[in-house]
Design brief:
Layout lengths: L1 H5 L4 E4 L4 E3 L3 H12 L3 E3 L2 E6 L24 E2 L12 E4 H7 L8 H14 L4 E3 L5 E6 L5 H22 L4 E2 L2 E2 H7 L1
Parallel strand pairs: 3-7, 4-8
Antiparallel strand pairs: 1-6, 2-8, 3-6, 5-7, 9-10
Amino acid sequence: NRGVGIAKGELIAFADDDTSIAPDWLAVIVETFRTRQADGVGGPTKPLWMGQRPSWLNDRLLRQLGIIDYGPTPFRVTGPSTPFIGVNAAYRKSLFERHGGFDEGRQNSSQDVEWFLRALRAGHVLVYQPHAAVSHKVDVSRCTKRDFARRFFRHGRGCALGLQEAGRDRAVCRVPLWVVRYWF
């Protein structure tokens, strides 16, 4: 939040210190803002394995590591099931001025998605751009079944907290339908 507050530019792009970005990554993001009249742009995050990938770790579980890929075609995000991950996202600074910063009371792993959902619910134009890909290091020593059990517990807690914010989302027994679809 401090970095967002002191940033001078109109656009703010996020990447992690253990992320590899292509030389044209920022140019692709800026072009997407311009051509799609976007308020936010996110792209895929590919795994950069630091060791041998565990055989039990299938592609569906990779999302818990922040590894996402929503396909080869750019699209406007219309629902919460395709969130931007903080390791590869950019927003107009004016959105932070209008909606506030990241919720520092949340765990670091859910602040980025909560903020994305806030922007989505406010009706901003958020565009997935597959050509704005990054590679994120995955330390296989942190990819144990026990680690994943903890991640899923935190994810469930985050979903439960999201129930209080969901309000308008369609739900079954107060569980948002997007959570039910993701679970299945």
